[in-house]
Each structure stands twice: as structure tokens, then as C-alpha cells.
Amino acid sequence: MTLLAALPATGAYRLTGTGRWRSAFAVTELANASIAAVGLELARLIEALSLAPSAPEVTVDQRLASLWFSYSFRPTGWQLPSLWDALAGVYETQDGWIRLHTNLPHHRKAALRVLGCAGERSAVAAAVRHWQAGWLESEIVAEGGVAAAMRSHAEWLTHPQGRAVAAEPLIHWTSPRAVRLRDRPQATAARPLAGLRVLDLTRVLAGPVSTRTLAGFGADVLRIDPPGWDEPGVITDISLGKRMAALDLTKGEDRLVFETLLADADVLVHGYRPGALDGLGYGADSRRQIAPNAVEVTLDAYGWTGPWAARRGFDSLVQMSAGIADAGRAWVGSDKPAPLPVQALDHATGYLMAAAVLSALTAAAGGAEVPSAHLSLARTAELLAGLPESAEGPALTTSAGSDYSEKIENSGWGPGRRLAPPLWIGSKPIRWDLPAGCCGSNAACWPE
């Protein structure tokens, strides 16, 4: 079986709907193709498992695919919390611009320790102006924080990390092994992933998008967070269809629970940087010993080779590093960094991760050895940089009421409506059996 290696050709799926994000880059085209990759790999799996006589047709709604790259949930009678911390954002330096990511308390504290200023935006802006962008970036990262200086694409391609990422495949398949798929008699053409156990060890945003997508076709997704973890502003989007549990992997009793869950998992999806799981005692050899038949797909921010392979990062930071924010600045005619209209690197990488899971399952169903898949936001950024524009239609600015399902979703925070499905496999749309729920709101166990 051929494993997924690139975006599908436009002619491989049916495209409906109109509208596109205005951008210096082909954001809508990336949305169409990455979501279509999920559909096409799922269609192949349906055929491989003999759930249908042939692979069903895949349909992507361009408008809805584009909108799913933004927020999919609209609250009714209440408001979502802000996605961003008050200090997060771009600041002017002596020689350019830098973006600080301070949503997590320890990242905020790290930036303030380096800057030596009060935790107010005006004080941070004044302090940042005394620094060169690259030097401040290095100091914040060394302190355990996250930041990214703005670079042009040309500068990125000459940077050691940019060169390393450009040489990596879009999906790095590695360490093939025999995988025996568990029987799932509940699987059907309509719910082909029913009974598939997916252990989710991911955080904002790409990894959770991948597992949300698998849940949309019937997979039992169990997400494990540290106790007390939360992701205000995005958790209503990415906990859809999942059970949300909490375990402290530094405690013996929780480790035993985790190892039992992993042993019974069909798929492991995680977003730990290279070597990070080793520090918890769950390196690659240990994971394979515990779960020899689990398909594994993982991601990081800056790629799997090069000097920044272990660097923490997020979509907004990779856009700064890889030349996207600089190209956007030139495109809009501004002197400030101009990011993409949506967090396209996160969403596209998430859908490609889900497609990689499906591709691996198809290979296993055919008796082939199954490798693990590594993806990164930075490699998706390089994909986007070379993607030609072809989408047509009016510019998208926001969603309309008609873009949402009429069904009320009773999330863990309150009622709301979810965007209509962007993807159809034959006559069946992607759909979710569970509403979005709060972190830690479920027991750490597989459903009966």
C-alpha cells in the first residue's frame, strides 16, 4: 500500500461551495486539499476493510473547509474567553519585529524575566525596543519561553533550521514494523472508525484537530492532559467528539493507568518534541513494548532535524520564523508583520496527521509493515509557500448563520451551534457523537 506523501490533486475529489480567504498565500487551497486528504485516505481504508465494494466519492465544501480553519463553534447566549494572553503579540525591536507567545503562565514569566519589566503591554513594548530581534528570541528561548523574530522567506531558507526543514518530507515515515489490527465488528461504511481507540496526547492546536477529525468518523478518542490543564478560547473547538481525562505521568498510579490505556490503544497521537517522552520513561522502544500494534503519528513545531528540532513553537511563531508574516506585510503594504487570516499551519497539519493515521491503517489492513509518521508546522509552512492559488469566489471575512448546523450542541460550557460539515464520504458527512467537553471531565478509561 502506498503511504500518503503529498497533498491530493484537485481532480481526485469533488469540490463544491464558493468563497476564499484573502491572503498572500493559497490558504483556501490548503484547506481544500488537506481536508480532502482525510476523505481520500478514509475512502481507501473503507475499501481495504471491505466496508464497501469500492472507494466512495469524496466531496469537500470549499466555503466550509475554509471556515473550519477558523472557529467552528458559535456560542448561544454566552461568550468564549479570549484566545490570547494580554501580552501575546508582535513588538517592534531595534532592528525588526518579534512575536511573544505568553498564553501559558511559564512562558509569560520567562519573557518577563528576560525583559526585566512589569507585566503590562506598554512596559513590554518599551523594553523590547532595546533589543535586537534575533538576540531577544534566543534569550527568551534559553529561559524556557517561546518567541520568534520575523524573518523573510529568503532569510529562513538560508537559516540552518530553514535548510533542514526544506530537506524534510512533508510526512516523514520512519521505523516500519508489523502491526496487527484489532477486529472492529462495529465498523461500517457510514462509521468506518467505530471502535478504533485513539489515545490523544496533544495540545493546541494541530494535534487536537487531527484527533477531532478521527472522532468525526466514529473513533473513540481519549485525550489525556496534566491535571488542571486548560486551553481557554480553543477547547470548545478541539475537544469535540472526545473524552477528556487527566493523568499526572510523574505519579506511579497514574503511570499504570496510562500504560494500560496505551496497551489497549489502536492509535497514539502526540505532539511531544523529539526526545521529550523519553524523559518521562516513554521513549520509542518503551512505547512499542507497551503497545506493539498501535499506529503512531506525531508532530512538532520546527521540524525533526536541524538545530531547532527540540524548540517549542506554535503556528503564530512559525509564521514569523518561516517568512509568512513578512510576506503578508509586503502583500498588505504594511510595516508590521501580517499573519495569515487563520491558523492555517495548525489546521492543515492536523488534517494531514489524521490522513496519515488513515493511510497507516490502510497499509496495516493490507498486511504491509507500518511506519510511524512525523509532521511539523514548519514543513507545512514550506508546503504553503509553494502552493499556487486557484480557488475562486468572494472573499471570506466571517461565517454567516447559514453556515451552521441547526442542531444545538450542549457543550461543557453552554449551548451553541457548530459549523456544518465540510467533508462528505459518499452520502455521509463527517459528524460527531459527543459534544465538546472540558479538560479532565471524563474518567481515564476506554468506553465499554
UniProtKB/TrEMBL annotation:
One of its GO terms (molecular function) is transferase activity. Residues 392-411 are annotated as: Disordered. SUPFAM superfamilies: CoA-transferase family III (CaiB/BaiF). The keyword Transmembrane helix does not apply. Keywords: Transferase. PANTHER family: BLR3030 PROTEIN (PTHR48228:SF4), SUCCINYL-COA--D-CITRAMALATE COA-TRANSFERASE (PTHR48228). This is CoA transferase. It comes from Leisingera caerulea (Phaeobacter caeruleus).
